[in-house]
Each structure stands twice: as C-alpha cells, then as structure tokens.
C-alpha cells in the first residue's frame, strides 16, 4: 500500500523568491508582499497552482517576488491575460496585481470587463494615486489639484474611485484595505480568495517617493480610528476611538450621515447594520470620503453569482452531449459533398 | 460519360447546344434578392456536374442598404469549366441583373457581346431613378454592344407561383429561383440538388418550398420552350479532368476554421480562440463558436488587445491560443505580439486582410499588410509569417502554422484576405489521419529546468505550464537572462537574447521544403513571384503564356518569413523577376533587400483581385523589354 505523506505545511518563506526586491525603501508595496506571503500558507495555496499576473508599474513587479508561477505582462492588460489563463485552465488560482494607472487608465476597459464577466480570480489594485514607475505623474485616482511633473499647476481632473468603479462594473466582491494594516490585509485576501467569481480589492498604498502621505489624513495611527470605519458583516456600522460614532440613514433622505451615539437621542439601535449583500448600501459606503465621512475599509460588497468559467464549462458539456460529435473527418464532410469516381 | 444533349424544340427544329471550354456568370440584384443563395446553388450544381470552378461573392458593405440602390447591390460570380479554373474569372460571359442598379454596378464586368439577362419587370421609373439612369438602358440603345435578354422575370414568377396564394412580396421573393432555373437551362445544369435544398430549407414551410421549386422549373421551362433572341440554344461544358475522391465546396474562412481544429488535434492541444468582431475576419469566430464539442473555447473579447492578450494567457496556461482580426485590429495587437515573442509562447495570429489604410474598405480585398506582419512591432521582434494562396489552402496553412508555433515556441501570423475568406472552390476532402501528428510535450521534469534554456536544435525554450510542481518560474516582457529568465539589463545578455530570437526564427527555414516553381522550369527569362490570393490569376496567366511558348515561370511564396533558404539562388536563375501584388509593392521590397534582385512590380489596389489578362499583359511587357 502506498502511504502518501502529507507535505509539510508551507511557510511564508516558501513563497518568497531569491530575487532582490527593487522597490524604493519604505514603499508600501513591501508590506503588501509580506501580507501575501503570509496569507498563502494559511489558505492552503500551493506554489504550483498559484499564478500572479501583473501589468506594468511598480506594483506590477510583484510576481517576481512570489515563488509561484508569475507573468509580468504589458501595461494595463493583466486582466485580459489572466482571463485567457482561466479559460485554458480554470483550476489555476490566479491573482492579478495592478496599479491605479495600470488598472484605471490604460487598462480601464479590461478591468471593467473582467469584473462584469465575473472571471474567477482575485484583483489587487495597489492605489498610490500616482504613476510611480514613470516618476510621479498624476494618475486617474489623483485628487484634483495634485501637483506633479505633468501638472505643475495642479490636476484639473475629477478622480475616479476605484471601488465605486468596480461596483459600477458589476463586481460581486469589492473590498478595501491599507498597506500598513498587517492583520487586516491577510483577512481581506482570504475573503477575496474564498469568493467564487471576480474579487476586487483596492489597497491604499503609500508611494514614499512621489506621493508620500496622501492617505495619512485617514490612515495615520492617531486619526485612523476616527476617520476609517472597519466593516464587518452583520455588525453595526460603528467607529471612532471611543466607538461612539456611527452611520445611519438620514431621516427622510436616501443618504448616510455620521451620528454620535448618546447625543441628540441617538442610540445604538439607530445605527445601520452592515450587510455585504446590499448593493445600495455598498454604493454609499464606497462613496464615503473624508472629511464628512469615515473611509470604508473591509468587505464592502459580497454577493456571489456563477463565474464565467462555469458558464463556459456548462456550454462545453452541452455541446458534447448535443453536438454532432468530435470526429474531424466527419466535420469536414458535414453538409453537401459529392464523389468523383476513379 | 457522354453529356446529355438538351435540345431546343420551339421552332420544331433541333439545335444542338454550343460547346464551351468555360464560362463566367455573374448574378446580381438587390441585397434582398437572395443573390448569394442563388450563387451558391449554382456552384453546387456545377461542382456536381464535374466542372472545375471558382467563385467570388461580392456583397455590399451596408447591412440593409435601401432597396434598389447601387450600394445595395449584391453579386456572386462563378467561373466554371472543363479546364483548370483557379480564379473567379476575368470578364463575365453573362450577367443576370435583377434590377437596374445591378445592371449599372456590374456592366463594367461584362465582356463585349456578353449576355445580359435583365428582369424588365424591375426596370420601373423609380428603380431607374434610384440607379441614376436618365433613360431606360434597355430601350435607349446604350447596350447595343451586348446581347440582351429582356425577360419580365417578375411577372413570369408571379404567374408561375400564383397557385400558392403568397403575398405579392412573398411571390416576388421566388424570382431568384426563376432566374436560376433559366440559367440552369442555359448552361445545362441539373436542378435536382437545388430542389432537394429548397425542400430541406423550407421543411417547415412546404408551401414556400413548392413555390420556389415551381419558379425554378418555370425559368428552366421558359428557356427550353420560348423563342429567345440572339439565336441562342444553350451551352454545354465538358467535364474537367478532376482527381477522383470525395469533394465539397469550401470557403477560406471554413477551411481555416477546420484547419485550426485539425491542427490543434494534431499537436494534442485544446484550442482557445479569442477575437473581436471585424470584417472580413468574423466568420472564423462564428464558425468556431459552434465547435465546442471539439474542445474549442471561443472568447469574444472587449477589444483586439484583450483578444490577443487572452490568447497569450491561454497559451501560457497550456492551451493553443489563437487570435484573429483584420489590419486595423492587428495594429492594436502589436504590443502584445512583442510580449509573445519575448516570452516565447506559441500563438497563432490570423490577419484577414482588407483594403486599408485605417478603416479603408472593409469588404474589399487587398494584400497590403505584409509590412505590418513582418516588421510591424517595436524592437527586433521576429516571428513566422505564412500566407494562404487559396480557400482550400487555408486548411493546410493553419495546420502548418500550429506545428511551427508549438515546435519553435513562437507566434505565427497567417495572412489571408477578404477574397480568399469569402471565395469558394471545390476541395478534395483530406483524411486528417494522414497528416503527421506532432503532439506537444510539456516540460515536467524539475531536474535542470531553466525557463529559457534552449533546445540545441530548434532553439525553442521549454514549455512549462502553471500547475506543474517544481517548475514555478516568472516570465515577462522585460529582457530576461538567457537561461534563468530572471530580469536582466545586462548588455551582453541582451545581445545574446536578440541574436537567439532571430536565429530561432531564421532556423525555421531549415525545416521548410525548398522553394520550387508552380509552373515552368527553375531558370529562364522571367520569374513571376507572387504570394497569397494572387496565386490563381498568376498561375493561369503563366500557364496560358507558356502554352504560347513564352519563357516564363511562376514561383509562389507560402513562407513570407523566414523566406525559403534557396529562394535567393532560385531567383538568380532568372533574367527578370516580376512581382504582382495587391498593394503598392511590399513583397518586392523584401526580395530586393534580401537578395539585391532588380525585381519589377505589378501593383493593383482597386479592392478587386487581379484579372488573368492584367498579369498576362505585364508578363508580355517584361518579355518584350
Ligand atoms: C504601453 C505603455 N505605455 C506607457 C508605459 C509607461 N508606464 C509604465 S508604468 C506606467 C504607470 C504606472 O502607474 P501605476 O499603474 O499607478 O503603477 P505604480 O508604478 O504607481 O505602481 C506607465 C505610464 C508602458 N510601460 N507601456
Ligand atoms: S516609486 Fe513609489 S510606488 Fe514605486 S517603488 Fe518607489 S515608493 Fe514604491
Ligand atoms: Mg500608481
């Protein structure tokens, strides 16, 4: 009898390559890499079955540092390459790593469609609100007024919200986290991985060289409690250092407001309960911005539906059952033929 | 087998049919007149009567052009005969014009003293006006150079089908069958295949089937019994000398589709076909989408870039990625082709060429994307370029492209065009079992595995697909170390990798059959060098002139890059080289730069294929120099 010895549990180290990491010292990408290397052993991932696919940018160097399969493709196109990988082998576990320029500028079209089609993979968008690799130009997520080498007078464009874009594209799993949240990130990765269909995670990532501190107004240790809200399904939407702030629907209006529990007769019962499956709520949470609102962190929306590959598989089974068979010589002779006698 | 003589009985006299070697007939009418169906029926019947043939469907660019307009004219040309055919023919012997616009559009295609079959019932004031005729050409003597059959096909069709209680519009829909019946009589074709087809097509509507059959028979009977002008008593065409076996008609798009399916099977891979609709490439996407039972996955991507990128992803994951487009879409794929070249993944890229630049003329044919295929990418980025010469050749081209792509781990571009894609010809159906299978072997052994360590002979890198334990590695568009595949900006390494990529593609020339001539000896006064869909016209021209004793040979290139190894020496055996192309001179640039040969061009970009006489004229001019 063959005894199959279970392989030793992999460790974060097993997922690290021997390649020298080339990001700037202090770049937020390091923390995300570390969180990922810690997550994979926990979710039982294997090196051979995991594929990281990226476009171009600082963020897109990510695959070189993961000891799995990896494909560093071309600018903006990672979702398309990843879709092809899943079409050819739906059993592979595919992670797409992309930047804000890669995903929302040159690759905006592909991001829209991979989410809409619900291809079963995970998309991690490292949002640093800047083009890092090309030395600091403003990006589609840069706030209006951003001064950069190409906008010396400040950007005059309205930024796009990555999360709202994903929801608008029909994503069925949308979450947010922050590079520095080392216990939160792996949890979000796990949820994204569990979800069948396209999972979208926006990670606020600090570019220490070209956009240092853009998120610190809500991520900095001393302000985070009052300016971020950590979402948990089924739990009231409460935040704040003293956990006295909460979100409720403004009476008589279809919008949210921040209220203080214990003030003006507000009790905990008035606070909304987070429901990941509520699309309307998700839209409002995704749109919350400082300083009026806390920034929503965590799983904003999760409502699974069949994946694209499942649809393809179902058609394939049907075609094999109902089609005219798979004999190529017979295929060539379908329809009208005639014979010239010898 | 002696041909049956159909005799004309109208005047009590017996007239034998006139024997012809070949004939060119062009059916034309409004897009709603069912011209393409009519043409394909005539094709079937003609093929079955043992003639060689070639067809050329010429349909309007507009989906539903207003009725009666010139830009709404749909035409179908067939050249058939007892001789070797190979092109859809130069000028037409007969034009069937179901309305004035069709006559206006197609008259330039007609030979002097050729036949016009005109439906007088459709030559109304309104239709004449829509076709921009100031006077009725049937009456003003402007057609005196031709032989005109004025037949009120509309009225005779209504009369023939009146027993079926159809609406007037429904009844007039049968007039293409009346016209077909008449032309069947004219060229002595068998009606039965069309009758069978009508019964099958309208199986759910036997009344309509019966009406169409009645119209078909009425048109035929009219030819047999009525007194028609010009002392015409019908023609007969002898049987062509055709190899025995089972035949079908096939278009380039069909042959390419089946070739992809067969080719993937021969290398033992599943096919992932990723495309974005564009004329004239779309039919391949449609056809393949119906072949899922052959493990074909089709993916309609959001654009051409996504299409090629998903095909690359599929190849990376161990399937055969194929993408297909036309010039404008191929332009969008350029950057991703570079990725497939540098990551050395197999990939098939099909370009169904159309007239350019930019959107150009989507339904018209041209061969103007050769530069784009050979050179159209950033960096030194060689790949393989193959060109199909005829509809049925697309089958073998697809199989060869797949073999080369997987054996050498390289993208391969297949050049076809609007003409080949739509045109049909008879095809001796091959037995796929007789093709050599070359199943792909993925790398599985981790021992000594390096992603870019090349096979000594083919210079191909190993194909190690995700999911294989122990072979985890990273690849990408950045320059790679020549063995490990790790990012490398080392200058010597880049030289080495650039040289290796070029050497791998150049080395494929060793795997190809030496170039030969298609007609004529391998030395002489003049070589006519062609590629792609000009094959038929060049071949017939050279064949005809050789028959007259002229010293000319035909060389037709299938391998555009790398070029065949012996091509330089073959060309040097000729005093002159003529290169006919449907572009302003692209292959000729390649030949001049590769072989320093003083080749002369014959160039045409009218959106129409070459005519045989155009090539004959150019050959004579070359030989008289
Ligand atoms: C086709 C193409 N256009 C432009 C570039 C140059 N380019 C590389 S990365 C980049 C922007 C990257 O920004 P982002 O996606 O936000 O990534 P980050 O570097 O910030 O992580 C640009 C414009 C390229 N590599 N390819
Ligand atoms: S430029 Fe910015 S994003 Fe890029 S590596 Fe440096 S710190 Fe990170
Ligand atoms: Mg960025």
Protein architecture, described:
Chain A is 29% helix and 18% strand. Chain A is built from eleven helices and twelve strands. The mean pLDDT of chain A is 96. In chain A, helix 1 packs across helix 6 and helix 3 packs across helix 4. In chain A, helix 6 links the parallel strand 5 and strand 6. Chain A starts with 28 loop residues before the first helix and ends with a strand. Chain A is α/β, with parallel strands linked by helices. An eight-stranded mixed sheet of chain A has the order 2-1-3-4-6-5-11-7, with helices on both faces. A three-stranded antiparallel sheet of chain A has the order 8-9-10. Chain B has 625 residues and is an alpha/beta fold. Helices cover 35% and strands 21% of the residues of chain B. In chain B, strand 21, helix 20 and strand 22 form a beta-alpha-beta unit. In chain B, helix 18 crosses helix 21. Chain B starts with 17 loop residues before the first strand and ends with a helix. Chains A and B meet through strand 2, helix 2, helix 4, helix 10 and helix 11 of A and helix 1, strand 9, helix 9, helix 11 and helix 13 of B.
């Amino acid at each position: 009898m063959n005894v199959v010895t279970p392989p030793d549990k992999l460790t974060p180290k097993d997922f690290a390559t021997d390649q020298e990491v080339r990001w700037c010292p202090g770049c937020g990408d390091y923390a995300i890499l570390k969180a990922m290397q810690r997550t994979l052993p926990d979710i039982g991932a294997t090196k051979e079955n995991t594929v990281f696919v990226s476009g171009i940018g600082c963020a897109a160097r990510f695959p070189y540092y993961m000891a799995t399969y990896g494909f560093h493709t071309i600018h903006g196109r990672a979702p398309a390459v990843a879709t092809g990988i899943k079409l050819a082998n739906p059993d592979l576990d595919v992670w797409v790593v992309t930047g804000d320029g890669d995903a929302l500028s040159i690759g905006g079209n592909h991001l829209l469609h991979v989410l809409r089609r619900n291809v079963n993979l995970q998309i991690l968008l490292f949002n640093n609100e800047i083009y890092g690799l090309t030395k600091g130009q403003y990006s589609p997520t840069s706030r209006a007024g951003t001064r950069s080498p190409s906008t010396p007078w400040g950007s005059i464009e309205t930024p796009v919200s990555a999360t709202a874009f994903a929801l608008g594209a029909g994503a069925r799993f949308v979450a947010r986290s922050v590079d520095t949240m080392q216990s939160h990130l792996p949890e979000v990765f796990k949820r994204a991985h569990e979800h069948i269909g396209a999972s979208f995670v926006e990670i606020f990532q600090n570019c220490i060289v070209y956009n240092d501190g853009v998120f610190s107004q809500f991520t900095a240790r001393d302000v985070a409690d009052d300016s971020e809200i950590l979402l948990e399904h089924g739990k009231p939407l409460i935040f704040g250092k003293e956990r006295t702030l909460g979100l409720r629907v403004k009476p008589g209006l279809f919008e949210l407001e921040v209220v203080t529990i214990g003030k003006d007769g507000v009790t905990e019962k008035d606070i909304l309960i987070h429901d990941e499956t509520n699309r309307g709520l998700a839209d409002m949470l995704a749109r919350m911005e400082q300083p009026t609102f806390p920034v929503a962190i965590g799983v904003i929306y999760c409502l699974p539906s069949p994946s694209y590959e499942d649809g393809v598989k179902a058609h394939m089974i049907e075609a094999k059952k109902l089609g005219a068979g798979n004999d190529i010589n017979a295929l060539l002779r379908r329809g009208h033929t005639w014979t010239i006698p010898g | 087998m002696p041909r049956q003589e159909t005799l004309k009985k109208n005047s009590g006299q017996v007239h034998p049919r006139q024997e012809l070697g070949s004939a060119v007939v062009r059916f034309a009418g409004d897009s709603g007149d069912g011209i393409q169906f009519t043409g394909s029926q005539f094709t079937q019947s003609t093929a079955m009567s043992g003639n060689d043939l070639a067809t050329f469907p010429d349909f309007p660019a507009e989906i539903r052009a207003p009725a009666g307009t010139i830009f709404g004219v749909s035409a179908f040309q067939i050249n058939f005969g007892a001789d070797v055919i190979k092109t859809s023919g130069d000028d037409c012997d007969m034009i069937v014009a179901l309305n004035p616009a069709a006559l206006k559009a197609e008259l330039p295609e007609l030979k002097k003293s050729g036949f016009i079959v005109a439906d007088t019932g459709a030559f109304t004031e309104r239709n004449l006006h829509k076709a921009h005729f100031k006077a009725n050409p049937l009456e003003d003597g402007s057609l005196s150079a031709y032989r005109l059959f004025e037949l009120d096909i509309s009225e005779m069709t209504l009369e023939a089908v009146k027993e079926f209680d159809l609406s007037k519009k429904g009844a007039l829909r049968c007039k293409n069958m009346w016209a077909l019946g008449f032309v069947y009589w004219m060229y002595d074709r068998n009606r039965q295949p069309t009758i069978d087809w009508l019964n099958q097509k309208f199986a759910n509507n036997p009344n309509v089937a019966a009406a169409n059959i009645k119209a078909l028979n009425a048109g035929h009977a009219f030819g047999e019994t009525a007194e028609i002008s010009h002392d015409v008593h019908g023609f007969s065409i002898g049987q062509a000398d055709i190899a025995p076996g089972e035949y079908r008609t096939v278009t380039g798009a069909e042959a390419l589709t089946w070739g992809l399916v067969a080719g993937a099977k021969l290398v033992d891979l599943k096919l992932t076909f990723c495309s974005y609709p564009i004329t004239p490439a779309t039919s391949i996407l449609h056809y393949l989408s119906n072949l899922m039972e052959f493990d074909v996955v089709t993916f309609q991507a959001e654009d051409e870039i996504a299409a090629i990128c998903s095909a690359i992803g599929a190849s990376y994951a161990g399937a055969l990625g194929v993408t297909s487009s036309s010039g404008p879409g191929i332009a969008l794929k350029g950057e991703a082709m570079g990725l497939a070249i540098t990551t050395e993944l197999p990939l098939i890229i099909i370009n169904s060429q159309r007239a350019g630049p930019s959107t150009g003329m989507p339904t018209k044919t041209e061969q103007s994307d050769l530069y784009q295929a050979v050179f159209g990418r950033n960096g030194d980025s060689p790949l393989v370029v193959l060109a199909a010469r005829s509809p049925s050749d697309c089958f073998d081209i697809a199989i060869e492209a797949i073999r080369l792509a997987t054996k050498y781990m390289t993208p391969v571009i297949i050049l076809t065009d609007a003409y080949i894609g739509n045109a049909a010809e008879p095809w001796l159906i091959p037995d796929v079992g007789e093709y050599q299978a070359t199943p792909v072997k993925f790398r599985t052994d981790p021992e000594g595995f390096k992603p870019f360590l090349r096979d000594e002979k083919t210079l191909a890198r190993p194909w190690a697909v995700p999911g294989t334990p122990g072979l985890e590695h990273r690849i990408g568009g950045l320059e790679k170390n020549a063995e490990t595949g790790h990012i490398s900006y080392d200058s010597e390494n880049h030289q080495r990798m650039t040289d290796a990529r070029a050497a791998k593609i150049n080395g494929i020339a060793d795997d190809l059959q030496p170039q030969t001539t298609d007609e004529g000896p391998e030395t002489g006064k003049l070589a006519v060098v062609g590629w792609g869909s000009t094959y038929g016209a060049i071949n017939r021209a050279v064949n005809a002139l050789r028959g007259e004793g002229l010293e000319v040979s035909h060389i037709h290139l299938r391998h555009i890059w790398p070029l065949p190894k012996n091509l330089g020496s073959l060309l040097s055996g000729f005093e002159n080289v003529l290169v006919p192309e449907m572009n302003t001179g692209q292959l000729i640039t390649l030949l001049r730069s590769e072989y320093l040969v003083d080749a002369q061009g014959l160039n045409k970009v009218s959106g129409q294929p070459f005519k045989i006489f155009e090539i004959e004229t150019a050959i004579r001019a070359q030989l008289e120099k």
